[in-house]
Design a protein that fits this description.
Layout lengths: L16 H19 L11 E6 L5 H12 L3 E6 L11 H11 L2 E5 L3 H10 L4 E3 L7 H15 L6 E5 L4 H12 L3 E5 L8 H13 L3 E5 L2 H5 L4 E4 L11 H7 L7 H6 L5 E4 L11 H4 L6 H19 L1
Parallel strand pairs: 1-2, 1-3, 3-4, 5-6, 5-8, 6-7, 8-9
Helix pairs in contact: 1-5, 1-12, 2-12, 3-4, 5-6, 5-12, 6-7
Bound molecules: phosphoric acid mono(formamide)ester and norvaline.
Phosphoric acid mono(formamide)ester binds next to α2.
């Protein structure tokens, strides 16, 4: 798809509905090829540089394995080991890496660092999570919804928890996918108002909606997709206790599941804290799709890389 080549992947907000479904369709094709062990070396001879200033299991392994399955190579660049961690400017790192590799994936704190990297790099930059957004995750999430429900349009998707990077990207992705997205948080942990404003515009244009709530049982009523994430994200470890207090009643348990549609699926980007935001019973239960969701990171990101690189 020539319209995709060379593009950065910083948020689903930057892509049209058709482009998002193009990625999902391609991801499903790549999944079928991989499951049949049919080689698909679309990125032979290409290299992805992967910069991490935060921990990761899924993102790191799925990007590296995905690149390998596409016939290319991936470099793990911990910020503790490259000069970026000693203060080399992002704009210099961007231009130097552009001379060596064919794409950069970055996971870091400030979203503005990723947009700056993308501005100075001549090659595609993929957002592997910032404090603001997590687009690779939500592409995999929408793919999982399509696999389980056959569609996204008109489905109710409720996120219960912190108004964080996951809540933001679920609004952007869910809006373009025509979903009715409910973000249920304590009052003091609402999502970013500018993200809410932009996602609400997108939702209106695509037949969906964005609603903010603070009552988890009401928010879960008749829901098709129930989503949660940790209460203290990476970088917020020092607030964990305070947050555990503030989020009392916001865990996904049997009571919440009773309010949901009987065929609702439960998603969690992982890692999960059992007994905090979700009970062991729910995450291990029959409605949990979390490990299919985690697997789909691999296929979704292969679709992104094969398209933009
Ligand atoms: N969901 C997710 O991004 O997981 P990792 O932090 O393990 O990459
Ligand atoms: N909100 C979490 C997501 C982890 C994949 C974090 O940023 O730590």
């Amino acid at each position: 798809n020539p319209a995709m080549k060379g593009r950065d992947f910083l948020s689903l907000h930057d892509f049209s509905r058709d482009e998002i479904f193009y990625f999902i369709d391609l991801a499903r094709e790549l999944k079928a090829l991989q499951n049949a062990r049919i080689p698909h070396p679309y990125l032979a001879g290409k290299t992805l540089g992967m910069i991490f200033t935060k921990s990761s299991t899924r993102t790191r392994v799925s990007f590296e394995v995905g690149m390998y399955q596409l016939g290319g190579n991936a470099l793990f660049l911990s910020s503790a080991d490259i000069q970026l961690g000693r203060g080399e400017p992002i704009k210099d790192t961007a231009r130097v890496l552009s001379r060596y590799v064919d794409g950069i994936m970055i996971r870091t704190f400030a979203h503005s660092d990723v947009t700056e990297l993308a501005q100075y790099a001549d090659i595609p930059v993929i957002n592997g999570l910032t404090d603001l957004l997590h687009p690779c995750q939500v592409l995999a999430d929408l793919m999982t919804v399509v696999e389980y429900k056959g569609k996204t349009d008109g489905l109710k998707m409720t996120f219960i928890g912190d108004g964080n990077n996951m809540a933001h990207e679920l609004m952007f992705g869910g809006a373009k996918a025509g979903m009715n997205v409910v973000i249920c948080t304590p009052e003091a942990y609402r999502p970013d108002p500018e993200v809410v404003r932009l996602a609400t515009e997108d939702a209106k244009a695509h037949g969906g909606s964005i609603t903010l709530m603070s009552d988890p049982v009401a928010a879960a009523k008749d829901v098709d997709v129930l989503y949660t994430d940790v209460w203290a994200s990476m970088g917020q470890e020092g607030e964990a206790q305070k947050r555990a207090q503030a989020f009392q009643g916001f865990l996904i348990d049997g009571t919440i599941m009773k309010a949901a549609h009987p065929k609702a699926i439960v998603l969690h980007c992982l890692p999960a804290h059992r007994g905090e935001e979700i009970t062991d019973e729910v995450i291990e239960g029959p409605q949990s799709a979390v490990f299919d969701e985690a697997e789909n990171r691999l296929h979704a990101q292969k679709a992104i890389m094969a398209s933009v690189m």
